Amino acid sequence: MHAWPASEVPALPGEGRDLRIHDTATGGLVTLDPGPVARIYVCGITPYDATHMGHAATYNAFDLVQRVWLDTKRQVHYVQNVTDVDDPLLERAQRDDVDWVELAEQETALFREDMTALRMLPPRHYIGAVEAIPGIVPLVERLRDLGAAYELDGDVYFSVESDPHFGEVSRLDAAAMRLLSAERGGDPDRPGKKNPLDPMLWMAARDGEPSWDGGSLGRGRPGWHIECVAIALDHLGMGFEVQGGGSDLAFPHHEMGASHAQVLTGEFPMAKAYVHAGMVALDGEKMSKSKGNLVFVSRLRRDGVDPAAIRLALLAHHYRSDWEWTDRVLQEAGERLDRWRAAVSRPDGPSADGLVEEIRDALADDLNAPAALAAVDRWVALQQEHGGEDTGAPGLASRAVDALLGVAL
C-alpha cells in the first residue's frame, strides 16, 4: 500500500531541540534522544468514513513530532497502518450494499488526499492489515506456543496475565479496563475466557465475512491489536521512540499491543513513549463515527476552505487537550492565516532569527503549538507596528512556519 506525496521541508539555520513529550505510561514528560534515526508508529484509520477533525488533529500532532526530529538533522522512520478489514468497515459495507474492499480503497484514497492537502508528512511504510496477515499468523502461533494464547470455539485469545507489565501503559484499574474494553471493541462478557480482558488474536471464519488462511490457526482474520504489533515489529523493532494515536487508543489498543510485543520478544518496553492526542468535540460530544457528529476535512475543502486555515485551527490547541470544533475556531484560523501571509509578503521586517528559536523551543516542550503560534503572532504584530530593515526576515519567517508547523504561507 502506498502513502501520499511528501511536501518539501525547508532547511533552517542552526539546529533544533531534542523533544520532551508527555508519556502516558509514566504520566510525565520524557526527553527523547534518538540516534541518527528516530522511529515512530502511529495507528491509522479504519477506512469506512475518512477524514474527520479528530483524525486530522491526531495526525497533525505526530506530524509535528516528525518536524521537530527533522529539524535536529535526524532521519525519521515513520510507520502507519490502515485497518482495512474490521467489523465497522464490514458493517458499513453491508449497510450501503457495497463491496468492502472497494469501500476501504475509496476511503483510504480520500484520506491520502486530505493528508496531502494538510501537508502532513507521509510515513515511510504505510501498511494495510490485509497485506500484513502473512506476518501476523506466525506471531499468533508463537504466542500460542509460548502458552500466552488459547483457543475458544475456534477463536484465539491472548492471555493478559502472561505479561507481567500488563496495565503499565494506560495505568487503569481492572474495573475501568473492563468498561472500556466493552466500549472499544472487546468482549469482556464472553463466557469461557480466562480473563474478561483477554483480547482476540485470531477470529475464526464467520459466514459471509472475509477470511484468510491462518495455517495451524485455521481460516479467519486477525484481531485489531496484533495487526499493529506485527507491522511495528517488522519495520521498527522493539524499543522505538514513540507509539502514537488518539487518547482513546491508550486502552485497550496500545495496552494490548505492548503486551503482545513484550511477550513475543521478551523485551520491555515496546516503545519509549506512549503519546496520545486529545479528543475533538462537536456540539458538546466527542466527534466520532458512531455518533455521526463529524466535520470532514474533504467537505471543508470542497467548500473552499484553505487547508492551511484548517491546519492553523488544529495548531491553535495543544495536542493533548480536548477541545470543541466551532465555526469561530475556523474563522479565527483564517484571519490568522491572512495576517501571516500579509506579513511575509512585505519586502522586509524585524529579524526573524529569534522567531525561529522561539518556535523550536515551544515545539520541543511537549509540542506546544499554541505557544509557537503566539510567537509568530508577536513577530507579525511587530512588523505591522514598526516594520524593519531585514530583507531576509519575511522569507526566514515563512520557511520556519512551513518547516516546523507545516503551514505554507
Short characterization:
The chain contains 13 helices and 14 strands.
Layout of strands and helices, then pairs:
Blueprint: E1 19-23, E2 28-32, E3 37-42, H1 53-71, E4 75-82, H2 87-96, H3 100-117, E5 125-128, H4 129-145, E6 149-152, E7 155-158, H5 174-183, E8 200-204, E9 220-222, H6 224-235, E10 240-246, H7 250-265, E11 271-277, E12 280-282, E13 285-286, H8 297-302, H9 307-315, E14 323-324, H10 327-344, H11 353-364, H12 369-386, H13 393-405
Parallel strand pairs: 3-4, 3-10, 4-5, 10-11, 12-14
Antiparallel strand pairs: 1-2, 6-7, 7-8, 8-9, 12-13
Describe it:
Helices cover 44% and strands 16% of the residues. With 409 residues, the chain is of the alpha/beta class. The chain folds into 2 domains: 19-277, Rossmann fold; 298-405, Four Helix Bundle (Hemerythrin (Met), subunit A) (Up-down Bundle), CATH 1.20.120.640. The chain has a 5-stranded parallel sheet with strand order 5-4-3-10-11, with helices on both faces. Strands 6-7-8-9 form a 4-stranded antiparallel sheet. A 3-stranded mixed sheet has the order 13-12-14, covered by helices on one side. Helix 4 packs across helix 6 (224-235), helix 6 (224-235) packs across helix 7 and helix 11 (353-364) runs antiparallel to helix 12.
